């Protein structure tokens, strides 16, 4: 599919027209897909009277909706909760998963394959199917309405371990050999060789874990009923049931909740897309 | 990396602390895996097993448990709302999975070539996936709000007007499927892009020389060589449709299962039974059926992909 070969059959101008048409279709589709998000931001800046008019650019743009949402509702508190929970889960999960991934990929011990198989078998078990027994367990551990209840159960998932193991399998064997010859212990190897080598995949996973937890709704909804512990997703769902008719407030709140993730995405777009593209496929 | 020239014979293992090198490696391996293994056991394995245990109990309002044997499972058979939920779940999956496959692959083919324009387009296609499901549900609810949402201003172009997308049982499920599709297709586009990248370019070049059209290339090269990716996508999207948090979040926030239970998928029904009516045992019985189904799916998945390695052979 080199350019030279593609253009040697039909004439050059034909190819250009086809390409421009192709690009236009793509661009129109992209705008259609983005439209709901643009619409959300647009309504967030509109006055209540204007919310149902069909113009994308507000006629009388206003910050009042944002002001109301940020002062009338403890959204800053919800965001702080979300940030604390997401950051904690990310750091702890990365620490544990790199350890497990390293052992499962590089160390030989009896039962290794069985352990990996057991971990892999939970790969597709999603939260909604175990939410009832999980709730019972977490309640029995006295972690309802605590930060621990929000954080600890969210740490463990097969996805991160699986991805790290695949990554470590691809590292050349000689990497540790020299260290073993030097008499380094396994902890030394993990800490000063494996971890520094994992920086790229850890960065990608860190973003993924953070986003997943920032966006999580079902578990925080279930485990924390105290308003002090609400994360931003639970906050906005409750905001919705209170202000179901005030769409201008709703869209301002939605914009506030969506912006951190969208900004992260714009900054780390390539890492996020690359890490997802290869997830579980090789 | 430093290499020691005159180390003693390397086949001679180093033996500190009385343990042989082999056993030291064993111990290290177990210790490294331990934190995750314990966590997964408590917060994933135990719940999976416990759902089977809870299923044979009835839980009263004071949190007391009473053994009821298979009563909860018998109740499922007689509960019209359970069958309704099972039907809606099946319908949701049957509508969503093929749409996701086609749209995901379609978008991937559209932006397959690596250039700056396509990179921007990919990001735009993927952007919905970055927004939380609660926000997605709220925004779409606004887009289709009863007969006056912005979508209602566009539908007359298709000859439909005055539709209440979420208020009418006939349209509610389709609307929910559409929103799920909008949220998920960027993700599957990425998975397909990964798969497309792995197809050797030489195949297309050879086909071109033989005079194959783009249509032929797609059916005889792209699609067959995408088999591992297709398999992964169908499997994962099927599981996501039946038991994914995305289905729960969208439906719970947009419709709570209504109107007239037309969007009441199993996971939403289970949640309501447990956390609105306190019927933990009954909810666990329904969950355990889902767990068994998912375990079977995962087992098939594992065997067919030889441990998730997705080798071509």
TrEMBL record, chain A:
The keyword Heme does not apply. Keywords: Cell membrane, Membrane, Sugar transport, Transmembrane, Transmembrane helix, Transport. CDD domains: TM_PBP2. Residues 79-268 form the ABC transmembrane type-1 domain. The keyword Lyase does not apply. Belongs to the binding-protein-dependent transport system permease family. This is Multiple sugar transport system permease protein. It comes from Rhizobium viscosum (Arthrobacter viscosus).
């Amino acid at each position: 599919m080199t350019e030279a070969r593609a253009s040697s059959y039909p004439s050059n101008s034909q190819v250009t027209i086809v390409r421009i048409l192709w690009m236009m279709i793509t661009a129109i589709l992209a705008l259609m897909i983005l439209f709901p998000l643009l619409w959300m931001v647009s309504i967030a800046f509109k006055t209540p009277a204007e919310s149902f008019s069909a113009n994308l650019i507000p006629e009388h743009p206003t910050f009042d909706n944002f002001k109301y949402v940020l002062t009338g509702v403890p959204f800053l508190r919800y965001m702080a909760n979300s940030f604390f929970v997401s950051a904690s889960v990310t750091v702890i999960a990365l620490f544990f998963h790199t350890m497990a991934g390293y052992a499962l990929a590089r160390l030989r011990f009896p039962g290794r394959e069985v352990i990996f198989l057991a971990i892999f078998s939970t790969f597709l078990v999603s939260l909604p199917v175990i939410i009832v027994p999980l709730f019972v367990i977490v309640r029995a551990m006295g972690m309802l309405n605590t930060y621990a209840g929000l954080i600890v159960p969210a740490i463990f998932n097969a996805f991160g371990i699986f991805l790290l193991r695949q990554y470590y399998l691809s590292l050349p064997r000689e990497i540790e050999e020299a260290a073993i010859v030097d008499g380094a212990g396994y902890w030394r190897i993990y800490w000063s060789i494996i971890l520094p080598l994992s920086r790229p995949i850890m960065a990608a996973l860190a973003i993924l874990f953070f986003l997943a937890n920032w966006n999580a709704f079902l578990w925080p909804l279930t485990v924390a009923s105290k308003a002090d512990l609400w994360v931003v997703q639970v906050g906005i769902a409750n905001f919705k049931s209170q202000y179901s008719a005030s769409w201008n407030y709703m869209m301002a709140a939605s914009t506030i909740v969506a912006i951190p993730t969208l900004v992260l995405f714009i900054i780390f777009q390539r890492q996020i897309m690359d890490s997802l593209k290869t997830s579980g496929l090789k | 990396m430093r290499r020691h020239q005159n180390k003693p014979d390397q086949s001679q293992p180093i033996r500190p602390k009385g343990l042989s090198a082999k056993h030291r490696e064993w111990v290290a391996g177990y210790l490294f895996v331990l934190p995750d293994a314990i966590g997964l056991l408590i917060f994933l394995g135990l719940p999976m097993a416990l759902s089977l245990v809870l299923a044979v109990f009835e839980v009263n309002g004071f949190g007391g448990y009473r053994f009821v044997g298979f009563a909860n499972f018998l109740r499922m058979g007689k509960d019209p709302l359970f069958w309704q939920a099972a039907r809606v779940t099946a319908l949701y999956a049957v509508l969503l999975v093929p749409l996701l496959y086609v749209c995901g692959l379609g978008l991937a083919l559209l932006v397959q070539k690596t250039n700056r324009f396509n990179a921007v387009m990919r990001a735009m296609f993927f952007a919905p996936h970055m927004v939380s499901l609660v926000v997605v549900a709220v925004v779409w609810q606004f887009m289709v709000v009863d007969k006056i949402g912005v979508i209602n201003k566009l539908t007359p172009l298709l000859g439909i007007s005055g539709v209440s997308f979420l208020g009418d049982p006939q349209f509610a499920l389709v609307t929910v499927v559409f929103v799920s599709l909008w949220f998920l297709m960027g993700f599957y586009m990425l998975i397909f892009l990964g798969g497309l990248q792995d197809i050797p370019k030489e195949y297309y070049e050879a086909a071109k020389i033989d005079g194959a059209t783009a249509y032929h290339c797609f059916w005889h090269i792209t699609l067959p060589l995408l088999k591992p990716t297709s398999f992964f996508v169908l499997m994962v999207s099927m599981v996501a449709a039946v038991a994914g948090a995305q289905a729960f979040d969208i439906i719970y926030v947009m419709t709570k299962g209504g109107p007239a239970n037309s969007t009441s998928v199993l996971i939403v029904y289970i949640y309501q039974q447990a956390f609105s009516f306190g019927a933990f045992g009954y909810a666990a019985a329904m969950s355990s059926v889902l767990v068994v189904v998912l375990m079977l799916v995962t087992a098939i998945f594992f065997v067919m992909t030889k441990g998730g390695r997705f080798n071509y052979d």
